[in-house]
Here is the input.
Amino acid sequence: KCRLEAKELAQLEASAGDDGSCIPDIARGVMPIPCVNMDLGASPIIILTDVGRDVDDEYALILLGALSRMNLLTPLAVVTTLAPARERASLTRGSLDALGLAKVPVGVGGAGGLDTDIPLEVYGAQYARSCSCIFESGVALMVRALESAPENSVQLLCIASLQDAATLIREHEELFVTKVKEVLIMGGVKPLDSSEFLEPDTAYNNNCDMESAKFVYRRCQEMGVPTLTLTRYTAYGCPVSNVIFDDLVKTAHMVGINTRRVSMEAINRLWHKVNLAATDPRREKLPSRCDRQWFCRTFFGKENIDRDSSMSIWDLVTKLNMYDPLTMLCCVPEYRETYFYW
Here is the structure.
């Protein structure tokens, strides 16, 4: 069988033009875009994520694996944004491989609007891997994915900075309008009566690159591409217990074990950041409203606690907010109609 496949590839290469246009992607060492079968009812989706920063991004990938197996979503591509985006892509590649999504291509996005001189954390994982199959241009990968999909079918899920989404629209507007059915954003918007157009507020993902966020919202409205925004208040309204991470560990799956470890570390890092001055660059554009009092209300339901900022806070946490998995659930019409109120 292998000899037969090699012979067929050799024949294709021999018959190809100078540009190699007739050679299949896999024969050129390029990871192909997953096929879209609309008859199965699985919506094609492209995901923009800053995985490696907060654990809920990787938890969203765990959920993506389940929704894919249930034929509810067809992931076409995952693009990592926020410097260092290449390291985030390596983590994403390893995570997807471990979750049974090895055929989903990964691309490297932009810096996300943040100063690349400020080192941003990317948590470690034994399964993270860098390989040649990772697309060096996330925007080019999104273009390939859109070109392969039926018209008005793709959901663009933005659970990170909107910088790469803005670049895609600026450089490939006609393709975007033709293929994208809906843009789903984990973020926030200003009150509806504040402007003629819906405008982004100071939510973290917006604040990473506010000009890009404004552009995406404005152009989508002008072009008639629907947007759906899930705000932090949704996550506040249905927090999950940290017991969920204990349950993941019981599966003995490497991703489940790592997400629990990372969640503990992320909570402790956030606890340190909220105790810094609002102008401190180490907050990495964390909104000023996210201070010590906000943290205590959000994770403990109290106004304050007697705990120094240099100490671990995990043992006191009673609830966690899963922003990105909730936004991903909105990509499935049945879940959206059943569990969300608009």
The longest strand covers residues 73-80.
